[in-house]
Amino acid sequence: MNLLKIQRRIRNLNNINKISNIMFLLSLIKLKKCKEQLLENEFFNSSINEILKKTASLSTAYQKNILNNKKNNHLFVVITSNNGFCGNYNKNIINYVHKNIKANSNILIIGQNGYNILKKLDYKIFDDFVAYDNNFLNLSKEIIFFAEKNDFQKVNIIFSKNTNLFSNVICNDQILPIVFEKNNNDVAGDDSLILIEPNKEEIFNKTIPFYIANNIYKKILIAKISEQTIRINTMREAKQNTEKMIFDLKNQFNKIRHLKITQEILENSISSLLLRGKN
After folding, report:
1. What sign does the dihedral 155-71-102-167 (CA atoms) show?
2. Domain limits for position 62
3. pTM, full prediction
4. Would residue 20 count as lying in a domain?
């Protein structure tokens, strides 16, 4: 390899290194934003859960369990990414779906990458749901609409979650039917002292879409945090690899240049000795 080609490769690697560094910084900013949104969402999430707990006890909708379906039919909401350069993020989710979800199952995809892969497989995909990436309330209403038609027995959401900075797990959480954990500290008869207008059932029915939307929103934020963390690690590794390649190419460049300089000195020395011998 000549010096000109080495210089060109070093220049190209420097450009790649700059792009990797920019994407690394952008991912850091997005990660911080997602974490802030997740913290802000916690208060709203606890408030919605408290309202549902207080109104579900006497609600006929809850007594019917919303999804009163005898068929073994599930809807799976799968969260993937719209962008690349996030390592094995989408691959792990698709592999989980392929291994654990039956081929004839109903899939609702959030994220274009997952849709592009799963549409080639034998899954029942609601194509138009891909566009609901940021409209979580409409998405939750559609899920409830399908549930009330008794099309689905359960609704689960599949997403990626960080366990630490360098690893993540695939979670499969149930959205519907709603199951509330029993609290031993609750005092019997307290709900009778609370005045709820217009009535518990109406409040419950109107709160359900917000609960599901908020639940989906929370899972998406967790998935986005996982995605950005993997992208940060990927860009960091890319930066380290390009820096190592640049370092090796510079060493190779210097060796070749020194060799050529030494060769020129030797040629000049031999030429001068030959000229002196003739004189």
Report:
1. positive
2. 32-233
3. 0.75
4. no
At residue 100, does pLDDT exceed 80? yes
pLDDT digits (tens, 9 = 90+) for 124-174: 776 556 665 556 656 666 766 766 665 677 788 899 998 877 778 899 988
> What's the CA dihedral at 90, 96, 102, 105 to 10 degrees?
-40
> Does the residue 7 lie in any domain?
no
pLDDT in tens, 56-70: 655 545 445 455 544
Q: Give the C-alpha distances (Å, rounded to integers) separating 256 from 3, 22, 67, 261, 262.
A: 7, 33, 74, 9, 10
9 falls within a domain: no
- How many structural domains are present in the chain? 1
The per-residue pLDDT for 103 is 73
Query: What CATH code is carried by the domain that includes residue 110?
Result: 3.40.1380.10
Strand ranges across the sheet with 106-110: 124-125, 106-110, 74-79, 154-162, 168-176
Decide if 162 is inside a domain: yes
